[in-house]
Amino acid sequence: MIQKLIEKIQKTKAPICVGLDPMLSYIPEHILKRSFGEFGETLAGAADAIWNFNKEIVDATWDLIPSVKPQIAMYEQFGIEGLRAYEKTVRYCQSKGLIVIGDAKRGDIGSTSAAYATAHLGSVTVGSTVCRAFDTDFLTVNPYLGTDGVKPFVDVCRSENKGIFVLVKTSNPSSGEFQDQLIDGKPLYEHVAAKVVEWGADTIEGAYSNVGAVVGATYPEMGAILRRLMPHTYFLVPGYGAQGGTAQDLKACFNKDGLGAVVNSSRGIIAAYRKDAYAKFGAEHFAEASRQAVVDMIADINSVL
Amino acid sequence: MIQKLIEKIQKTKAPICVGLDPMLSYIPEHILKRSFGEFGETLAGAADAIWNFNKEIVDATWDLIPSVKPQIAMYEQFGIEGLRAYEKTVRYCQSKGLIVIGDAKRGDIGSTSAAYATAHLGSVTVGSTVCRAFDTDFLTVNPYLGTDGVKPFVDVCRSENKGIFVLVKTSNPSSGEFQDQLIDGKPLYEHVAAKVVEWGADTIEGAYSNVGAVVGATYPEMGAILRRLMPHTYFLVPGYGAQGGTAQDLKACFNKDGLGAVVNSSRGIIAAYRKDAYAKFGAEHFAEASRQAVVDMIADINSVL
Questions:
Q1: Reported pTM
Q2: A247-283: burial string, b at 16+ Cβ within 10 Å, e else
Q3: A28-50 pLDDT per residue, tens
């Protein structure tokens, strides 16, 4: 799967993914009004608004980008109806040829991680029928429980040609609280990085492994160290834009081949029309604002590569 | 919410929760046949079987127990239909007066954790309507992202009188890989424990905080240390029974007041009919086997308290 992502990145010349993390507050009034009119001010109404919002953004950007990263929490908060919008979004993006990175940060003891791997990447046999649930192309995974909690995801990567990104150094302000603590002279995230390399060793396709790492753009010095420690690991890089990471900060996450990282922007793209720079598009044309923000983001990142 | 759990524990004299983690392989043939007959060998068929299986177990055990812990991964693997069975199970258990601990191990950056907290413990406003999604009483939470990733859950505990259990020392074989690593001479799980105490300090009801800890029964020495470090923290203790933890191992997780821990058993209860000790009940009477297993588990644990 990592090769498929790389091919899409090379074709679009855009090492990015658009974070489809809709908040109700991002969705223009005219969409909310239509959905609430049809389904009421209910979870179903919210889910319908999210789906319509996503669809317009995907329609306006799919030809420019290799991948999207829907954050499942933003859908889960609207319960079953929200998760239906998540599933619909995943299917729609895949129908447009986009690689879908499910941002779910799942992780548990072995047998439970196996169920999560099934839910998001694999298949489950019901009677004699093979069924698939959310079926994204990649999934983000939390490593706190250690190897037996991650292994089931790696197994599914191998059997189904899928990929994962394991949290190594996250982009949030307090990520260092545990992740930066020194163990034998090295921060925890470096120990996790070493395990990620080990877990992924059997899943290498070409120059990169199907077991990637989440490395926040907000900590560029750490990104540089991790890049050296994990030459064959693709980085999923959150934190660009709204969270404060700049293109210059990202540079260190890339390898000399210009590959090795896919940079996410959520708010900066999907809520672009609310920023001064794109206000001229207006709420009615929010998706065109997103398209322009994608064009600008690609140029910004390519300027440092 | 922790007081409500304690009252239920005192009333039932049973510091336990039943892990409603159904695997299709646990479900007796007659239930599968009925559900597949109605819905086909589909995700909907699997979800219907799970729901019927759960309902019989709850009907056979609710009067003996204070709480249940559905593991959401086991439902998520059947997609939207599976999550509908999760929701139905949560509602049904609550209608029986049971405290429901959603075992979801969620955790992300602040704004995303806020969405998860909304999804599982809180409410979301759609237009001018307040809606609730999964609405469990407690949720398990992963601490790898640090304070800003946990804080939104704590905030919801406070505003909605709910509770969480933060992963401190998990029950799985490789939990030590990162959790046991020494930082300034103390294992990571003790550092997490200190944070759990801090996060929960504002949510104390009576002798205990609404911010609890997950402490595996499979590491009794560590349980004893954590018990001393966290006197006002309730422990959710997985690992009893099928994973190898014994009643003697659990003793250290309790305080001298006989409180402080709620012990989970999943397979040992819900798949009891498949064990030699309960085989006499037969698959048709699997729920009666579960009831007997609950009676035996309560006696076993109370024998060491």
A1: 0.97
A2: bebbbbbbbeeebbbbbbbbbbbbbbbeeeebeebee
A3: 999 999 999 999 999 999 999 99
